[in-house]
Amino acid sequence: MLSAWSATPLKGRAGQAFLFLLYLVLTVGLATVVAFTFDASGGGFLLVLITTGLVLFLPFWKLYKRTLTELTDE
Questions:
Q1: In whole angstroms, what is the distance from residue 53 CA to residue 34 CA?
Q2: Where exactly are the transmembrane stretches of this chain (predicted)?
């Protein structure tokens, strides 16, 4: 059975680009959800968005790097 994961290139530069794109979408998406949840507007929205993005940056960056290391070790 063909799935989205088997059809997605996860090796080489294409895999790196795909994982980094997922990482960015996840980080920015979660930061936006938090900003909307707190009903921030104007400058407050940007502050909540940037702060949440920074808080989420490190864990997802480590996950991205670990996954990338596992893919290159195969």
A1: 10
A2: 20-38, 44-61
